[in-house]
Amino acid sequence: MSQLTLTLSGETLTVPMTHGESVLDAALRAGLDAPYSCMEGVCTACMAQIKEGEVDFPDDTILDDRDKADGKTLTCQAKLKVGCAKIVIDYDAV
After folding, report:
1. Can you say how many angstroms the Cα of residue 17 is from the centroid of all Cα atoms in its chain?
2. What residues make up the domain containing 66?
C-alpha cells in the first residue's frame, strides 16, 4: 500500500492508496469532496497538480504539452506508477 497526500480547499489529508486505484477513487474513498464529473478523463474537472511522485496516465491526449510540463494530471485516470510509494497531489494549484 502506498501513501497519497491531497490538498483540497486549503486542507491537506494523507490516506492509503493501493496500486491500480485512481487518485480520484482514493480521494472519494477517504470522504473528500474532490472535484469530478465524467470519470472518463475528458471533462478536466478533476485536474490537479502532481507535487511529488509519479503516476501512470493511460490516455493523456486531453492534456496539452504545457499542462504536462506543469505536472498536471486528471485524477480520475491517474494511478500510482509501479514502485512509487508516495504521491502528493494539489487540487488547489490548478
Report:
1. 11
2. 2-90
Model pTM score:
0.92
Spatial separation of the C-alpha atoms in residues 86 and 16, rounded to whole Å: 9
List of E strands, 1-94: 2-8, 11-17, 47-52, 55-56, 72-74, 79-80, 86-90
Q: Cβ(13)–Cβ(30) under 8 Å?
A: yes
Cβ atoms within 10 Å, residue 88: 16
| Distant-in-sequence, close-in-space partners of 29: CB < 8 Å, separation ≥ 6 | 15, 21
Q: In CATH, what number is assigned to the domain containing residue 49?
A: 3.10.20.30
What are 12-56's pLDDT values in tens digits? Answer: 999 999 988 999 999 999 999 999 999 999 999 999 999 999 999
**Cell digits of residue 43:** 471533462
Instruction: State the total domains in the chain.
Output: 1
